[in-house]
Structure formats: C-alpha cells, structure tokens
Specification:
Layout lengths: L5 E5 L3 E6 L4 E6 L5 E5 L9 E3 L2 E6 L4 E15 L2 E13 L9 H16 L4 E3 L9 H5 L3 H5 L2 H4 L12 H6 L9 E12 L2 E11 L23 E11 L2 E11 L6 E2 L11 E2 L3 H19 L1 E6 L5 H17 L4 E5 L2 H4 L8 H7 L1 H7 L2 E5 L9 E4 L3 E6 L5 H21 L16 H23 L6 H6 L4 H20 L1 H11 L5 H7 L5 H22 L4 H21 L1 H4 L8
Parallel strand pairs: 13-20, 16-17, 16-20
Antiparallel strand pairs: 1-2, 1-5, 2-3, 3-4, 6-7, 7-8, 8-9, 9-10, 10-11, 11-12, 12-13, 13-18, 14-15, 18-19
Helix pairs in contact: 1-15, 11-12, 17-18
Pfam families: Syja_N (PF02383)
Organism: Blepharisma stoltei
GO cellular component, one term: endoplasmic reticulum
Length: 581
C-alpha cells in the first residue's frame, strides 16, 4: 500500500506543505492566502497531517480550503507506474475558528456535495504516469512538452481538478499540482500462454459538458458533448529487456447535435431537436473537427433504433454527417435492437464486417521502453490513425457492448502481432484463453457499471451478456430493476446530483447555491405527498359509492385521472439543477 508522501504542518499563522520528493516547503499564509516557496526547513513542532497529495484549493463562503487526498486505493500499475483511486478527501480551512459564522453552514453543505462526488469512486491519479493522456500521445511528446511539468502537458479535457488548482498554478508551485482523472481504471496481470501479461482498461470522462442523463443531452454551442468518454485498452509484457505496450483507443459520446430529452415523469421522455439547422451544423462541425484533429480518422457508429422517436434523432444525425462528410470522417448506422433482436447478439459481427476496412486501417499503437525508462521515453513502432466514436441514446448499455467487441477484435490483432496469439476472425465474441477471457469480461463489465452510475445513477444493463456471454433471467430482472431505479433517480434526484458535480468543477458559486439550492430529496418528497393525496382522494370518492364493483370502478377512474394530471404537469414536478443545460 502506498504510504502518504505529503505533510501538512498547521500553525496559527500558516499551512506548510512538504513533499518527500521535493527540497522545498510551500507556505500558505492563513490570513492573506498568499502562497510562497521556501527551502525545506525545520518547522514548529506539531503533529503533521499526512496525505497523498492535493486536489487543490476551493473558495467557499466562510473560508478558503486546502483539499487533501487522505485515503487512496491502489488500482494497479503499468510497468513501474502505479495508478491510485481516491477514496476520501479532507478539507483544511484557512480560518481557524468558524463555528460562530453563519457562512459555516453553507460551507458544510458544499463539503458534503464534494464528498458525495468523491464517493462515486471514480477519481484516479498517478505520480509518474500521465493518466489524462493516451500511450500514443505520451510517446509522441515533443522535447518542449517533455520539459514541461506534468500538469502543463496534461490533457485538459480530462484534468478534472484544473479549476481547483488555479491558486497553485498562479503561485507557480508545480510540485503540488496533481492532475486527477474521472471515469474508470483497472489494471490486472494474467498468465497468457506462459507470458505475464498486464491488461489495463482506462476510461476518461470529458468535464467540459458534464451532466446527468436527462438533464444534459447532446452538444453545447462550443461543440462539447455530454458523456464523452475516451476509453483506452492497454496491454504490456516484457520481451527480452524491453517492456512492449500496445494501446487501442475509442470514444463514446452523446449524439453530436443540439437536442434535449428533459425529464417530465414519462418513462421515456420524447427527445427534441433544438436550435436551427445552421446552429446544429456549426456545433457538430466544431465537435467533429476536434475529434479529427486529436485522433485522425473518425468513424461514427450510431446504434439507436431506426423507428419511433429515436429514428427522428438518428435521421437528423445522418443528415449532419452528410454535411460534414470527408475522407477522414465515416458513418455507420447499426440498429442494435433491430439487428440483435431475440438475443442474437452474435449479429454484431455484421457491424464488424461493415467497418472491417476501417478497423484494419486505423490499427493500434505499439511502443516499447527500456527497463529504467518511463513511458515518456518510449520508442514508437506503430500508431493508431483513427478511432470509432460510438453512441446509442445514453451511450451506456448498447455502446459498452459494441465497444467491448471492437476492443476484443483489436486485442486479438495485438496479440497476433506480438507473435503470441491467433488472428482476429471477425467473430463478435472470439474467445481468449480462460484467464485473459475472464479478466477482459470483468474489466468491461466494471467499466460499463461505473460509467453508467456516473451518468444515469445505476449500474449498466446487458452486463450479464458481457460477463457470461449469454443472456440470463437474473440479468433481465436486474435490467428491469435498474430501469425503475433510473426513473426515480433521473426524475427526482438528478438535479441535486448535477449540482454536486457542478460544484466540484467550480461552475456553481456559494452565492448562487445559497439562492437556489434545496434539500436533495425535496422533489421526491413533494411527489410522494401528491401521489398519496391522489390515492386518498380516489379512495374517499369511491367510498361514497354503493357496491363493490362501483367502488373499484370509481377508484380506478379517479386514480387514472390523477395520474394523467401528474403526467401533464410532470416537467414542473421533477428535480432541476441550478445550471440546466
């Protein structure tokens, strides 16, 4: 277990921060908030606070707070670089005595929200590995980029505590800035045909348009997509004296256009296309251009239905693709539910066949490093020249199944390229040897669950198939349970949930929160009281009728009218976030 390597020495006048890897001491003046760097020195005798690093500094109503990472869990390591999951944080206030301040209560509310975000177990960091970047990008850093501090070359889309680090950045205390990524990470070591093989799966969420399921859909005007995730599958093994690494990257993200699907107590709210045709073309153009600049070729894989309300969204998406179509941009609409109906998920092989040329031409990244070298000094042998951007309506359940199929296909190609595996056959679920197969399935199930919880509030659906290779009765029952849970969470709790995430990202100020924040369960309580009143009214009315049949007829009639009135006013009864996009 990693030992804490940072100390915080607290006195009445200052906070002194020391790192075991640094020869300096960072001094934070409690009164002025100024940050200075001094040579490492002997400080006043006091019991220090041990921690693993710092998220940064937050400005609340009563005080500024240094946010220390107090508990971590080791996820695994890639070569000699360990990855850690943040389990707990502590708030260290600049002001010593605040209990008598009215603003202290507001600060505690903000701390509670930030704790709730951290307790999603979805934040990760590494001291000597750039977890915000892909292996390919790390290996291709220029000499100038290599000379920068880790936070300066970090991928800002996935640098979630960037806003919290502004005080550190302005003071130039680079050694305290620790880029933290949100999403999923897992690393396992398996025996593969006598080789010790490291398998890692890392999913990085983009923070620029963060939001919860029905509150935030599609793009914003700058082309940022909600639930945009870059997923990198990595394998590594020793060959002679070199550590060889193969990486495969793909992305998911909400349908890249201006659209919404606001909660309104309907089981599935009707999606709506927003903005003019020109505005949609501009926003989608910005999004697709950024993808091509960062990844090269892009194939858009659309998994939504070709019927019902999804068809209208899919048709509009297809029209936008034709507007932006070029030699680097491709599109495939694969109606997952239609093609794989009656549990015939092996039909995903049809999708593999349709995009086979792109799979081959995009390839994967392969690098190697020496025994004592970090990834930043890797030798590049192959480069991935393009990515698949996959979406369904939520970019959760169907998307994860298809992404795991693409990843499986690439992994077969990588193992074959290393001379230790068979060629990819084009089957959707071509198996690996038992130990790697079990590891692969479990990692993709956990990835699905984590990303689903962060966006929808529940674990993913269809994971019984990803885990076992077949649909089960228990899996179908779990999916029904998760659907019901999503209905409650998305309608009555997601406003408060999104407020917590926006607070973490610095989008909500204490002043704005004080004016508009309400108790998290207020909307759910109000709905339950209205529902109970409707039931009581129906029973009271039915009791004034004669006969058993008349009672039930009038009860069902009155309750049905009440439910219809609730539904017609549904958009007024759901929980809304402060920032409603």
């Amino acid at each position: 277990m990693q030992k804490p390597n940072f100390l915080v020495i607290s006195t009445s006048n200052f906070l002194a921060l020391q790192s075991s890897a640094s020869d300096s001491t960072v001094i934070i003046n409690r009164a002025s908030g100024s940050i200075t760097v001094e040579p490492k020195q002997t400080l006043p005798h006091t019991t220090p606070i041990e921690c693993y690093g710092f998220l940064g500094i937050s400005h609340f109503s009563a005080s500024k707070y240094l946010i220390a990472i107090s508990q971590v869990q080791t996820v695994g390591r890639i070569k000699d670089c360990f990855i850690y999951q943040i389990k707990e944080i502590d708030f260290i206030p600049y002001r010593l005595s605040m209990d008598d301040l009215p603003e202290c209560k507001e600060d505690k509310a903000f701390m509670k929200m930030l704790h709730s975000v951290i307790h999603t177990n979805s934040f990760y960091f590494s001291y000597n590995y750039d977890i915000t970047d892909t292996i390919q990008k790390i290996s291709n850093f220029s000499e100038h980029e290599k000379s920068l501090s880790p936070w300066e070359r970090a991928e800002k889309r996935f640098f979630w505590n960037y806003s919290m680090c502004q005080d550190f950045i302005q003071a130039g205390v680079h050694e305290l800035i620790l880029p933290v990524m949100n999403g999923f990470a897992r690393v396992e070591t398996v025996n593969y045909k006598g080789n010790s093989l490291d398998y890692a799966l890392i999913s990085r969420r983009d923070h620029r348009r963060n939001g919860t399921r029905f509150n935030t859909r599609g793009l914003d005007s700058a082309g940022n997509a909600v639930n945009f995730v870059e997923t990198e599958q990595i394998i590594g093994l020793w060959k002679d004296r070199d550590f060889v690494i193969c990486s495969y990257v793909q992305t998911r993200g909400s349908i890249p256009m201006l659209w919404s699907q606001k909660p309104n107590l309907a089981w599935t709210p009707k999606p709506k296309i927003n903005g003019s045709v020109q505005q949609n073309e501009e926003s989608s153009g910005l999004h697709l251009t950024e993808l091509m600049e960062k990844y090269g070729g892009v194939t858009l894989v659309n998994l939504i239905d070709k019927k019902g309300s999804q068809n209208a969204i899919g048709t509009a998406f297809t029209d936008l693709y034709h507007v932006h179509s070029n030699e680097k941009l491709n599109y495939e609409w694969f109606d997952f539910h239609g093609e794989c109906k009656k549990m015939k998920w092996e039909n995903i092989a049809r999708l593999l066949h349709s995009v086979a040329k792109k799979i081959e031409s995009y390839g994967y990244c392969q690098v190697s490093t020496g025994e004592n070298d970090y990834m930043i000094h890797s030798q590049v042998y192959r480069k991935q020249s393009g990515i698949f951007r996959t979406n369904c309506m939520d970019c959760l359940d169907r998307t994860n199944v298809v992404q795991s199929v693409f990843a499986r296909n690439s992994l077969h190609s990588q193992l074959n390229g290393l001379g230790i595996g068979d060629k990819a056959t084009g089957q959707a679920f071509q198996p690996f040897p038992e130990e790697l197969e079990k590891c692969f399935r479990e990692c993709w199930v956990q990835n699905a669950d984590r990303l689903s919880i962060l966006y929808s509030g529940t674990p993913a659906q269809k994971t019984d198939f990803t885990r076992t290779g077949k649909r089960t009765i228990k899996g179908a029952l779990d999916d029904g349970k998760y659907s019901l849970q999503r209905f409650v969470i998305n309608n009555f709790l997601d406003g408060a949930n999104q407020n917590a995430w926006d607070s973490f990202l610095g989008k909500i100020t204490p002043k704005k929160a004080k004016e508009k924040m309400k108790w998290k369960y207020m909307t759910l309580l109000k709905f339950m009281l209205i529902l109970m009143a409707a039931i009581w009214f129906s029973i009271w009315t039915a009791n004034h009728s004669a006969g058993n049949f008349a009672f039930w007829f009038i009860f069902v009639f009155c309750f049905g009218i009440s439910l219809k009135m609730l539904k017609s006013n549904g958009s007024k009864l759901v929980d809304k976030p402060i920032i409603n996009t």
